[in-house]
Amino acid sequence: MLGEVLGVERRRRWSDDEKLEILSEVGVGGASVTQIAQRHDITRSQIYGWRRDLKKKGLWSPDRGAVFLPVDFSAAQAPASASAPSRSGHVKLRLSNGRCLRFDSGMDGEALTRLIRAVEAA
After folding, report:
1. Are 43 and 75 contained in the same domain?
2. Residues 6+ apart with CB under 8 A from 26
3. Are 104 and 80 part of one and the same domain?
4. How far apart are the first and last CA of the chain?
5. Same domain (yes/no): 72, 120
6. CA 116 to chain centre
7. How far apart are alpha carbons 15 and 18 in whole angstroms?
8. Who contacts 68 (Cβ-Cβ below 8 Å, separation ≥6)?
9. Based on the domain organization, do 75 and 116 belong to the same domain?
10. Helix 44-57 to helix 16-24 angle, to the nearest 10 degrees?
11. pLDDT tens-digit map of 54-113
12. How far is CA 81 from the centre of its chain?
């Protein structure tokens, strides 16, 4: 059987800066890896591969582009009576938009809820 290649070979070269720019688009405005891949006419596996390779080079981290938002805790009400004993520990919470929150496990639930809503809205 004789095969024929149709079309022009589309092998493209991407600089690390171009790869980082494309990777940073994931999650912005809720954009998924699939949507970003389609936008740039590449495959999802390329995005995951670039992320892995750039992590090895030390050029990419999941916290890249972290945003710090002001939060007003003065409006939080103190518990009326004795509270349950709290254990100190750190918690890491990854939100649906890809952002990550780190906080003390003893943090007030209402304050944490306001913080999560503020970060998701940003």
Report:
1. no
2. 32, 33, 36, 47, 98
3. yes
4. 57
5. yes
6. 14
7. 5
8. none
9. yes
10. 120
11. 888 888 776 655 566 677 777 655 555 555 555 567 788 877 767 777 888 788 888 888
12. 38
